[in-house]
Structures are given as C-alpha cells and as structure tokens.
Amino acid sequence: MPFVRRFTEVQPLEVIRQIEGSVIIDLAPPAPATGAGNGAVLLVGEFEDGYFATDELGPVEVFGSADQQVKFGGFGFTYANVPSNNPCARRHVQENWNGNGFLKGYRLKAQRLMIARVDTSVGSVSFDPLASISGGVGPFAMTVGGVLTVTSNTGGPANSTALTAVVATSAGAAASFATIVSGDSFGIRIDGGVQTTVVFGGGDTTQAAVIARINTVLGFACAVANATQVDLRGIQAGTGGSVVLVELVAGVLAKAGHVVGTTVGTGSVANINAVTVTEINTIVNGSAALTAINIGARIGPLGELRLVNTTTLAAASLNITSTPMALTAKLSPIGTTVLISSHPAGTIRAGTRVRTVGGLEWVTMQTLDVTAGALGPYTVRVRPATDDGTALGTGASSVTVLVDQSNIGTLVVNNAAALTAALTEPQLDAAYQAALDQTLAEAKTVRDANFLLIARRSDAVVYAGRSNALAATSGGLSARIYITGDPLGTSTSTTLTNVAKFRSDRVFYTGKGLKVTVAEIAVRGLAGGVGFTEDGVITVRPDGPLTTVCAILAPETNPGQPQALITDFFDVDAGGELLTIESYIAFKASGVVVPRNDRSNGMEFQSGVTSTLESGKTTCARRKMADYIQNSLVLIANPYVKKLSTQARRDKLRGQIGGFLSGLQSLNAPDLQRIAAFSIDDSVNAGNTADVLALGVYYINIAVRTLSSLDDIVMQTEIGENAVIVTEV
Fold it and tell me: Are 378 and 440 in a shared domain?
C-alpha cells in the first residue's frame, strides 16, 4: 500500500519527492470577509469632566451612558443635593447650549461612540493640603467658659477665646406693685416662643406675689427678685435668647417695673446648648492666641468642624488637647500630632467652586485623584462657573476662597497665574479646531469614526468640521461624514443660502429644530437660569438625531425612511414659520435634511440628501454605502499588501472580494439583499499588464450597483362607474 502523508501547508518539491505515495495538503479556506464596522460616531464638544482631546490620551471611546458619566460627567454639578448647577456652554453665538456636549449627545444612539472634549479653560488653580483634624457636624451642647487648646509646630499650647453666653434679662425698675388691680395683664414672649398673657389677681400687690403669678403662668422661674424689683429672664443662654414685653392693659408693665420692648441675650454664641460649627469657626478664627500659632477653623464638605494649621509648609502640624469642648465637638484624634501628610486618599471633584474675595467664581474642569499623604500643589484647569462668555478675569494670587472642601482633608486654593476672561467666540472656534486636529491620528481608536458630530455651531466650526471629514477620509482613516446644520431660529431662505457655503457629499446639512424634554433641565426649572425652562422642554438642532438614524440604520438605507429611533424628539420647531410641502421641496433641492413630524410614522427626516448638488452624489444612502463598501475592501486587501504578487495570491484576494460582494447581493436569500449587482475586473483591461505587475501594482476594477429606496410610490387610479376593466387571459 502506498504511503500517505498529510500536511497543513504547501510543501516544496523536494519534500514531496522524498518518498512515493499520496500527499494530502489540508489548507484552511480564507476567512469570510464580514465588512468594516459602521455606525461609529465621534462627538466633539464641551463636557464637565474627563480628558481633553488635546491631552496625551486624546479622544476617548465610551461604552454606554454610565461609562460616559464616569469619564466625562453629566449635566452640571450637584451642590448640597441640588443638581444641574453651573453647566458648561450655557450660551454662545446667541444660542443656548451651543457647545454643550451632554445635550448634543442627549438620546444619541450609535454602534460605537468616541468623545473629543474641547479645552475651554481660562487658566489653572492649585490646591494644597493643610494639617487637619475633623470633628462633628453639631450643634453641640457646650458649657460657658469652654475652650479649645491646640499646639502647633510653631508654638502652644494656646487656648481659644472662652465661650460666653448669658440669658436675656429685662431688669425691673421703679415698680409700684401695690397699685396692681385684678384683671391687669401684659404679654410676654420668651426666646422667640409664642406670646403668653399674664393676668394678675387682686392680691398680686407685692413683689413676692408678682413673682409667683408670673412664674406660675410661664411654668418656669422667669421672674426673680432683684432687691426690691422684679427681673424677667429667658431660658436660652446666648444671643439667640430674648424677652419680649407687650402692653395689653395700659400702665400694667410700669406697675411691674418694666417697659414695652425686647431684651436679647449676650455672648459669643446664640445658644450655649446648641453651638454650631459656624460659631466655633468664628471663635477659633478670632482667637489671637490660636492665630499666633497658625491655627484656624474650617467647615468640611459634610458640614463638619475642622481645625487646621493654616500654613502649607511641609513641617506644619497641630495637636488638640483633651478638653471638655474638644470632646463635645467630637474632634479626633485628640492628643496626637497631625501633619500635612496625614491626610487620606480622596478626590477633588470636577465642579469644585473657587472664588475671589469679591465673589468672582470658577469651577474645576477635571476630577483629581489624590493619594494618601501626597503633598501639594494639585493643579487643575478651571472655567467660569457661569459659562456664557461674559465672565471677567482676575489677577494672580486672587483666587483664595474654596467653596467646596474635599474628602481628603482641608485644602487651600490659589492661582499662581492670572485667569483670563471667558474665551471669546473666535477663541472658542480655535479651541474646537485644536480638538478636531487630534481626531486625525491614525494610531488612535478615533480612526474608526464614520460620523462626526460637533456640539458647537459657528461658521468657522462648520468649515473646520467639513475639512476634518475630508482630511480623515483622504488621510487613511475610515471614511468620515460630518453631520451639521444651521443655527436654531434660522429662516428657511437663509438656510437655503447657507448650505451652499459648505457643500460636499461628506456634509449632511440640517435645518430647523427639534423639541425634547431634558430631565436634567426640568429638575431645576426656571431656577436654573439662562437656558433652563420650567418643564425641561428645549429646542435642539436636529444634527444629533440625524446622526442617530445614520449610525443605527444599515448604511445602504435612506435616513429619511420611517423609523422609531428618535421618538424622544416630539415636535419640529420651525421658528415661527409654516413648513409646507413647498418648503420641503426647496430643502431637498438645496441639499438640506429637515425633520418632519409625520402624522402616521412619527418623527422622521423628510429627504435623505447630502449637501452636494453633484449628480450621482446627492443621496445620503449612496455616500454611506460607498464608505461601507470601500472601508470593507480596504480591510480585505490590507493583509495582502507587500506580500509576493503570485497569481494564486491575487486570485485569493479577488475571490475574497467577490465573496464579500456576493454576500451583499445575497441571491440565495433575497430578503437579505443589500446591493443590486456587482462586477470585478482584474484583467489587462483593468490595467494589469506584465510591466505594471512587475512594478508591484495590482489593479482591481470594482463596480457596485446599489439599491435605490422607494422614494416615490406612484399609484395611478381610475375609479368610477365608467372605469374600464381589462381582463387578460
């Protein structure tokens, strides 16, 4: 029986001739070509947190809304459990939320999503930790005379100013108790309580009787003897206590030795039995002995008391002595020296507010993670808190007020360099251009983006977006389409003029607006300020919803077809104009994609046209499908580049291309058909002469006829009594 040998690779002739017999070569067929990815969206805009596109990491891919929230934040910031504060890009180029990436991506759907965050910072601030000891949130029941005793690296122990608190006392004078008659009365309110009426009897004509009557009515020892007079005292010791006397029967207060009016308590606190963290802060920061050794007080993010060494020197420290006041305030640790490096790990959240003494305010633009014990400064970029282009700048070292403390301990803030005024519109355009430049990197994930969506709308940005799509396509990245449109409120006639400035089949241009309810705006209502509405309904440009339709539907389909992808957008905002069929005819003829709320199909785009008027390139479906096929062909061909140009290898490549296109044609499964027909030619007619092949060039001419959409269905009808019915046999 002859020998049988089996191999998984083609063997050279000398191996085959080693011995007589049968040779089996088991070659794996080429992997089927599945086509390039489609529906990857690149969103460029302003966000509350995360990497900037111009940072080393560049644009970042996100995987769902939760991941986007973690990487780039949400809509504004939450302070004291109140959300949606200080959102970015509140108003620019006379349009609310022009540049806000969160709202531009609101309800956006895509196969993949990449975000390029634009850096609109006006400078930086730095944070330094302080040696810090934390206490409770209060209020605390203290005792008069209580002190905090602290030692620092520069001196001590030193005491805070002692607590003082005295009840309100209305002192009596020139009383004539003997003249009191039955039915005499006056009103009294103690420590802000309800008014009580004291009615004297006929026998209340002595000091003792008056005291007894008042105390019986009030239920505590309010009236006390003071020599021959009667004093009236409150209960609450401190400036919050009071005694208010009201005349009910003329002359009665004078008989008791008093006058109409209010007497308040005195001291350093409002209520010695409920001393607040704010009051302790005031006492500590006003204590000369503690200030002399650099000891101060702050309020933490949870409202807790913090004692600090106010210097940022590495040697700064403090040590709290065990006193009744320190124990009551729950300060810890007590009796242990705490250093700047004693702080735990934690974060300085994006949105942290910093101010000048005069009240100018900025917010931090990135969350900083701080390791335990790390010394400052921790530097971060900032933007104006009210981001509407009107904020003023400030000089160096003027930002010294930190509104929101961190969980890592107590921080102080400063700005080493001046903060500029809010970026002008041209400066914002330049910032967007800088971000867009970073989306052309072939080595980064952003190379796969099929659709470009930009949150900001200005003519300069639209020009930049158009150039970006063309550059990405010609520069070796996946072919890119830019979806944009006119500003909100633009009239139809102006839109028909504007689109001519940006024509390209790689620019899908939209007009008018779409209404949508945004929960993050509704939760604040009108209290949110400019850009907020009472019910959360706002108008957005339709480029975002159009991007959703293009990214989710198959590339060969018309984005103007009925679909259920943008149902959150419930009405077309035509800016006061009446959109008629003539309006939509004009939009289509000029290459503008405009939404329409169809009474049967819901929200859709009327005409899926590109902005170009060039014959053969006017439909969005052609542009999208051409990109998909061309990107797929590149993926098929790339593994063959620089390999030896054997006939077998060329045949294999041609076969894979044919297999891919046959799958799109799907002759055996008509319901899956995506193209009408195709042809492939790599003969001499395509340019493949021996001389050309010898140069390492291999031509493959590929023609693909795509399927048209059923844009117009014409039903000719003849209905009536005289209709002629023809029956063919």
Answer: no
